[in-house]
């Protein structure tokens, strides 16, 4: 059964109907040609049979009748008794041989001369036959006797001498056996007709087979072989017409869906189980949409849903949430294991977010990652949060140039011990000295660096510069430990320990004067690998601190095995601690936990004296923030340190206020 669906399947349905109609027309034409050819064969066969019969009749008339015709007898309108007896004997013999049923002879004035037919009702010659016979030429004509037998009329002219004697000839009727003389012709006709039927039958079978193969090939070209859903090619073909009709009043939405933890299913249960899960997810998605909507598999564990005829943006968001609920609630049992399926769905609208499918795919992809980061499950594309813009692409080019041209600089922010207000170390913070925009803070360019793959080259540069600066201060009699942030990707590199130790050796800096700060995210990406790399560094004397603790999802169990020396409490817990009892409680608990594990505690983002005093009361070891100092260039930091050292003996409030 074919459903005629207006919308995204209209083109496909019309194509199928047109192919079937074309096949029907071709078959009709072929069958018509068959009927015409068979009819033509029958006509030509009958003509050949008549011609063969006429020739036979002429032979019989010439060999049996002519010798019996005498001009003198014919002139008297009769045959001699001897001729009649001989003629009758010959006819009886031919009849016994099955070559003849009957024979009659008339004179040219219509007088019967001989009747050798056993059937009654002899055919009387017509006036036209008599007139034609009197013209004196041999001729033969086919017809049908009264009893339905084939009969032929033959005019036998006499010789010129006989005609001069008073007669011009006789008219002969020969009645042939039904079908006997045309059997060969009929056999040939039957064989020819059978050949035509077979040939055209093969043509029809070939056409049907060819159409089946074409449709099958087209289906394979447009469908995903694993799930049976339409593929990316079909999406581009079918979406073109729908996008052309989309308007702000009747938008079209594209939903990009990415399954969560699908890799774990493949790794744990095997790829066969993963394929089964994809098939069942595909069936669930297909059952959850309307007939006019389009569900496609884009590859891997990514699916797309094209929603047509939506009233507004809210409807698209609602449909995305509905699909997500269906996936979360549907039972998925694979290899005897009950699986719960979750996903992230990004939504892009046409024409609001794009008028072409590539634009919608890109916007939906951005929205999907927004949904992942926010952990909401679904998100509609918001251009205000899209970092994949033309400006961002231009910034990537500028950042590559900046790395080549040494446009980055390091500023250093001091960390102060709350026990004696002594500067214990400094943190190296990168800045970009842009040729036209001036000095840019890391928030302006670090996200772009992370997405573009340039973070590792910058991390290596920061590490070398900070180590060289710390070595320079040490040679100047001002030994300061310097802390360097290590990106998640750099942490998991096999050669990180070798690079760090090589840089320390080249600068002749003791490993104890270097502290690496890593984020919770970097650790949780691959905890075992992170522990292995950090242990190598810690065994050589390099200190390790967990940065932004409390902002991520570090398992407390890993704190027991990671070779760390300090925890830096994230500024999000610190900034509202005086007003939020919960934040203070968490900070106090983290401080107590760190001390129990033998770690020091550093609070970052401290911006007021009241907050500094409260952290000191909670037992925090070090603080870092604008209440102490903003990040400073190396020369400015040296002046600040000299001034801070001179006033270190003053009360905390006075020193911090300075």
From TrEMBL:
Transmembrane segments: 21-38
Residue intervals of the GGDEF domain: 250-383
Protein keywords: Membrane, Transmembrane, Transmembrane helix
Name by which UniProt lists this protein: Diguanylate cyclase (GGDEF) domain-containing protein
CDD domains found in the cross-reference section: EAL, GGDEF
Residue stretches making up the EAL domain: 392-645
Domain of life: Bacteria
Cited Pfam families: EAL, GGDEF
């Amino acid at each position: 059964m074919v459903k005629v669906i207006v919308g995204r399947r209209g083109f496909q349905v019309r194509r199928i109907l047109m192919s079937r109609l074309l096949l029907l027309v071709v078959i009709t034409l072929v069958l018509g040609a068959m009927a015409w050819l068979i009819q033509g064969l029958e006509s030509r066969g009958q003509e050949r049979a008549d011609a063969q019969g006429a020739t036979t009749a002429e032979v019989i008339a010439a060999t049996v009748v002519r010798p019996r015709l005498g001009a003198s007898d014919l002139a008297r309108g009769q045959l001699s008794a001897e001729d009649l007896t001989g003629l009758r004997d010959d006819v009886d013999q031919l009849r016994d041989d099955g070559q003849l049923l009957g024979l009659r002879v008339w004179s040219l004035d219509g007088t019967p001369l001989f009747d050798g037919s056993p059937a009654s009702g002899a055919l009387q010659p017509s006036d036209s036959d008599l007139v034609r016979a009197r013209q004196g030429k041999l001729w033969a004509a086919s017809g049908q006797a009264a009893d339905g037998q084939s009969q032929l009329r033959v005019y036998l002219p006499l010789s010129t001498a006989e005609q001069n004697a008073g007669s011009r000839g006789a008219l002969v009727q020969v009645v042939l056996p039904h079908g006997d003389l045309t059997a060969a012709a009929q056999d040939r006709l039957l064989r020819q007709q059978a050949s035509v039927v077979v040939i055209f039958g093969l043509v029809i079978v070939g056409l049907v087979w060819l159409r089946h193969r074409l449709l099958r090939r087209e289906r394979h070209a447009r469908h995903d072989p694993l799930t049976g859903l339409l593929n990316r090619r079909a999406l581009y073909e079918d979406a073109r017409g729908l996008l052309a009709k989309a308007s702000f009043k009747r938008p079209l939405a594209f939903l990009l869906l990415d399954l969560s933890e699908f890799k774990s299913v493949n790794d744990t249960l095997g790829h066969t189980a993963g394929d089964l899960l994809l098939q069942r997810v595909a069936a669930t998605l297909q059952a959850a949409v309307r007939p006019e909507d389009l569900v496609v598999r884009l590859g891997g564990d990514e699916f797309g849903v094209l929603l047509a005829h939506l009233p507004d943006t809210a409807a698209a968001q609602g449909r995305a949430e509905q699909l997500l609920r269906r996936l979360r609630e549907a039972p998925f049992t694979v290899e005897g294991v009950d699986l719960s399926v979750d996903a992230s769905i990004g939504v892009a609208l046409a024409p609001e977010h794009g008028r072409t499918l590539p634009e919608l795919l890109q916007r939906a992809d951005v929205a999907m990652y927004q949904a992942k980061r926010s952990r909401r499950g679904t998100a509609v594309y918001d251009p205000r949060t899209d970092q994949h813009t033309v400006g961002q692409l231009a910034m990537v080019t500028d950042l590559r140039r900046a790395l080549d041209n040494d446009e980055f600089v390091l500023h250093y922010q001091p960390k102060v011990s709350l026990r004696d207000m002594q500067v214990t170390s400094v943190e190296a913070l990168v800045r970009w000295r842009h040729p036209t925009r001036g000095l840019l803070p890391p928030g302006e360019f670090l996200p772009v660096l992370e997405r573009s793959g340039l973070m590792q080259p910058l991390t290596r540069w920061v590490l070398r510069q900070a180590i060289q600066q710390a070595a320079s201060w040490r040679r100047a009699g001002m030994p300061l430990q310097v802390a360097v942030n290590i990106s998640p990707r750099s942490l998991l590199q096999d050669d990180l320990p070798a690079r760090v130790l090589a840089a320390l050796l080249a600068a002749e800096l003791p490993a104890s004067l270097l502290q690496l700060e890593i984020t919770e995210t970097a650790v949780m990406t691959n905890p075992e690998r992170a522990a292995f790399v950090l242990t190598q560094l810690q065994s050589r004397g390099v200190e390790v601190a967990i940065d932004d603790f409390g902002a991520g999802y570090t398992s407390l169990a890993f704190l027991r095995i990671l070779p760390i020396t300090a925890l830096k409490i994230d500024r999000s817990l610190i900034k509202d601690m005086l007003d939020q009892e919960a934040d203070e409680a968490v900070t106090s608990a983290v401080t107590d936990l760190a001390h129990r594990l033998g770690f020091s505690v550093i609070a970052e983002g401290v911006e007021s004296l009241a907050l500094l005093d409260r952290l000191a009361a909670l037992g925090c070891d070090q603080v870092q923030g604008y209440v102490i100092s903003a990040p400073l260039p190396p020369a400015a930091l040296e002046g600040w340190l000299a001034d801070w050292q001179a006033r270190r003996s003053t009360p905390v409030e006075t020193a911090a206020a300075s």
